[in-house]
Design brief:
- It is a single chain.
- This protein has 3 helices and 11 strands.
Length: about 200
């Protein structure tokens, strides 16, 4: 009796290219924190870019990669989720060799479907961000003269279906490759198969 299940292998690349319209009052280091949904649970995977100076040209050009295997239910849940991008700042000086925590500057949310439904499952776009609310103040509303903060990202997904199963056969004293039957004689040892 044969049994098998369908599993998807997912390779995801997120390229953080650069930022624009970022206003940080003092000299601080900036980085982008990405949260990716992790299957059917409410858990998320967190990935951070390298730190760059807020006085620089605001270019990271850094690729973050993630590879995983998912069952059908997890893949369906993932496709309904979103990728969260947070632009964060951190004091560029340290105290006794330790850096302080980071502060949220702005945030964007991008649905997985943006990349899944794209041609070749690859996109490059500007993720327009919403500035973090300050204590007692609402998020800033931008007029035509002031552009909102944004991060340019590239995303690519490669999804492959895998069939994983186990074929049961009777045991004989020879392995199937020694027998020459390629597993067709029903007297060779159990083996697992894996199709890509």
């Amino acid at each position: 009796m044969d049994s098998h299940s369908l599993t998807s292998s997912l390779s995801f690349e997120l390229r953080i290219i650069r930022a624009r319209n970022i206003q940080v009052k003092s000299s601080r280091d900036l980085f982008v924190r990405c949260y990716l949904p992790a299957g059917i649970s409410n858990k998320r995977v967190r990935l951070d870019t390298q730190l760059i100076s807020s006085n620089s040209n605001l270019t990271w050009n850094q690729t973050l990669s993630l590879n995983c295997s998912l069952d059908e239910a997890s893949l369906k849940s993932l496709k309904q989720g979103s990728i969260i991008l947070e632009l964060r700042s951190r004091n560029s000086t340290s105290f006794m060799g330790r850096r302080s925590g980071s502060k949220l500057v702005a945030k964007a949310e991008m649905p997985w479907n943006d990349v899944i439904e794209a041609k070749s499952m690859e996109i490059e776009k500007w993720a327009v961000m919403i500035e973090e609310e300050k204590k007692g103040k609402k998020s800033r509303v931008f007029d035509d003269d002031v552009k909102p903060p944004a991060v340019q990202v590239g995303m690519k997904v490669d999804e492959s279906a895998l069939v994983i199963g186990k074929k049961k056969q009777l045991v004989c004293e020879r392995r199937w490759d020694e027998c020459g039957c390629m597993g067709e004689c029903n007297t060779c040892v159990d083996y697992d198969y894996f199709l890509h």
